[in-house]
Amino acid sequence: MFPPGRAASLSHSAGIAVAVARVPSHGIPLGCDLEFRPLPHRAARLVLRVDEEGLLLTGARPVDAAWSLTELFSAKEAASRVEGPG
Asked: Model pTM?
């Protein structure tokens, strides 16, 4: 538990952990996620909504063209930590 107004986020993967925190601010969100283990492509149906599937890397990665499933999952995890429980 953190004092009211404080923002913090914790994550761990493959035996490594990260924590970020900041002093009280005016509603600026804070979230992080750490993923070192790549997710198999078949897990996409568990991680992505139908409207997010277009963001998924499908072949060779041109610069800034698509995200891997692990990157998308990590971004969604960080966002969910900003939103909090529920």
From this structure: 0.67
What is the Cα–Cα distance from 81 to 61, expressed in whole angstroms? 28
Q: Which residues of the chain, if any, have pLDDT below 70?
A: 1-2, 26, 57-65, 84-86
CB 82 within 8 A of CB 31: yes
Q: What is the pLDDT of residue 86?
A: 45
Amino acid at 6: R
Q: In Å, how far from its chain's centre is CA 84?
A: 13
Residue 26 phi/psi, 5-degree rounding, is: -85, 70
| DSSP string computed for 35-61 | --SPPPGGGHHHH--GGGGGGB--SS-
Contact (CB, 8 A) for 41 and 69:
yes
- Domain spans of the chain? 7-83
Beta-bridge mates of residue 19: 10
